Amino acid sequence: MLDKNGIAKRIAKEVKDGMYVNLGIGIPTLVANYVPEHIEVVLQSENGLLGTGPFPFEGEEDADLINAGKQTVTTLPGSSIFDSAMSFGMIRAQKVDLTILGAMEVSENGDIANWKVPGKMVKGMGGAMDLVASAKKIIVAMQHCDKAGNSKLLPHCTLPLTGVHCIQKVVTDLGVFDIHDGAFILLERAADVSIEEIKAKTAGKLIIPNHVGIVE
Hints:
Layout: H1 4-12, E1 20-23, E2 42-45, E3 49-52, E4 75-81, H2 84-92, E5 98-102, E6 105-107, E7 112-113, H3 128-134, E8 137-141, E9 153-154, E10 169-171, E11 175-179, E12 184-189, H4 195-200, E13 206-207, E14 213-214
Parallel strand pairs: 1-2, 1-5, 5-8, 6-9, 8-10, 12-13, 12-14
Antiparallel strand pairs: 2-3, 3-4, 6-7, 10-11, 11-12
């Protein structure tokens, strides 16, 4: 199975030259470390940073430079810092080409739940609702099952929704899936994961094409 870095590395292949990309909290932040050197992308953090670079090496952290997840980051030449109002103006004006988010659940219709578990205290939705409503393309990075072994790729989300019919692709520790016409379409599987295991761990409608690649 893919570990968190493996998921991030695979998603980095979806980043294309010239894109403006927002990285959500959790696994998505790791994507910054795997963007190919030969392409130029601009990473946006909704707390007010355009031009986010990789995580700093130990001892080189700057406490004033953080991403939306409160992790220290670096800046690249030409980067800029601004307030949250301007940042969300960029998002709502659909200036972000690709958003990469974590999730607790994703449905076969492309719905996403990633901000609240009923009965648990949360500070708020953050920027997730704006991002799923405004980004041109959204990819989810997540574990395929929860800690109890239950599928997180579902017919319908059971948790409060962040957005509806907005997710196009999901990358989990088991494989890569497109979402289209009310189904998860298996594109690639992790090298040590069988199609039978993916079937058993996917509660939503799953389509297996004749050819399924291996995540590299």
